Structures are given as C-alpha cells and as structure tokens.
Amino acid sequence: MKILFVDDEENIRELFLEYFKNEYEVTLAADGMEALDIALSQQFDLIISDISLPKLNGVQFIKKLRFEGNITPFIVITGDSDIQLAIDVFRIGAVDFFLKPFRMDSLRRRIEKYADTDVDLKVLFRNQEISFHDSELNIEIFPRIKNINKYVAIIIEHIQLNPIVNEEDLLSIKVVLYELLANAIEHGSAGITYKEKQSILESTDQYFEKVDELCQKYNRRIYVLLKISDEGIVIKVQDQGSGFNLKEIPSPLDDHTGNLLNGRGIFLVRMNIDSISYNEKGNEVTVTKSWTSKN
Description:
Elements (H helix, E strand, L loop, with lengths): L1 E5 L3 H11 L4 E5 L2 H10 L4 E5 L7 H10 L6 E5 L4 H6 L5 E6 L4 H9 L22 E7 L6 H12 L7 H23 L4 H10 L3 H12 L3 E7 L3 E8 L24 H7 L4 E4 L5 E7 L5
Parallel strand pairs: 1-2, 1-3, 3-4, 4-5
Antiparallel strand pairs: 6-7, 7-8, 8-10, 9-10
C-alpha cells in the first residue's frame, strides 16, 4: 500500500515514517505544492494531509487534486481551531479526519480499512459490451472484523457494474459501508458498547481479536440489502444485536475526546449520503444516496 503523508512539521513526518515504514510504502511532503506535484506524478492508495500547510493548504490541495481527476482516498489532520474547515473538506472528497494531537495506533486502524480493498475487474460496460441497471442484492454475513475489507469489496464489485456510478460515488459508498458494517460488527454482533470500546482500546492493542472472539461467541448475523437504480442506491444494514439509542452517541463536533472515537462513524456516514434512518430498536439502519450524475 502506498501512502502520501503531508505535514509541515518535520518531527511529525519523521514519526509517521518511523511508525509505518515497515508496513507501507511511505512518501513524505512538507507543503501543499510539493504534495500536489508528487500526487500528480505517482499513484497512491491513500493520502494523509494536515489542513494547515504552507504554499497550498489542505483544502486547496484536495481541490486541485480532484480537479485533475484524482480520486485517491484522503484523510485530513486538523486542530480544534479549524475543525469546521476539516468538515468542509468532506464535500470535496475527504473520507476521514483526525484532531491533533492524535495517537499513531488510532491512525493505524483507520489506514487498515483502505488496504487491499480494490478488486481487479473487467468492467465490460466501459466498452459498451454490457449494460447493467436496476438490481437488488441480499447478503448474509457471518461477521469477522478482520474480513471487513472483503465484505466491502464484494459489495462494491456489484455496485460498480452500474454504468451510471462514477468513482466519486464509489468512494463515498466505500466510506459508508466501512462505517455501517464496522458498527454492526462491533456493537451489534460483538455487543461492545461505545464506552466499552474505548476501555478495550486503552487497555490492549488486540482490539480486532477481541471483537472477533465475541462475534464467534454470540454467533450473530448481519444482513445487507442493496437496491440499485438509475437514480441512486438504498443500503440497509441489520444486525442481531440489542440495538442502541442514537441520542446517547455524542456528536464529534461537541465532544472531541478520544479523537472522535464515539460518534465519528455516524458522522462520516452522514457526510456521504442523502438520508439516514434507524428502526426503533436501533439495530437496523437505512441510507440513501443519489448518483452524482443525477444531481
């Protein structure tokens, strides 16, 4: 996996390189202009950038990159003072953000979900050899958190056959699927509350193992329903957990503790879809998104 990391503070760049150099192919940049030149000359799987950069700030960097047709997933890093600016970048293609100071192990968990997710497909409709429009897909998952990349890849493989869906749509849907499935696995199938999650993360680095152990113990299923049309997509995710009260989840805009650990998933989903609704129990969520070509 190739990562471009952009920050004007040398010590942060060196720390990131030291922490991830044995796992990923890391390229560093010290300002927005240097990052733009690098990003336009090489292909990356993920870009992580500070918002406050010399020459070009993070927002300008993303805008110019998107203008050139580059849709690489983009995580931004920001301070409390420009949190609203960080939120605004979601509208131009960012998929996640972190507040300074942040822990490298927290960032690692966010990076892992973008690794090895693409499936090599022959998309025949691009050559006008196939036309694919309305469809419905029902999936039953025996959940394991370590398989979440595979679950997303299988669903994306089905969605991208629709000729109306572009890369921007797919990127948004990937973000939504990761968050919805992660919530269903962690809180539904494994039965971990938001408070318990924070406690486990603080006490051990074996969080994924703990989640999968509980999933295996409770043996609960997750059901995913996709309805795809020429207008957009409906995604429904249901788990067999006890549900939750949406009002009890803090807003990441009001509570910055834990680097947006609580509530960030729902926040990220909301930024990438048109509507979201839950059943009364809280174990079923439905989201809708119109294709950008129809907006």
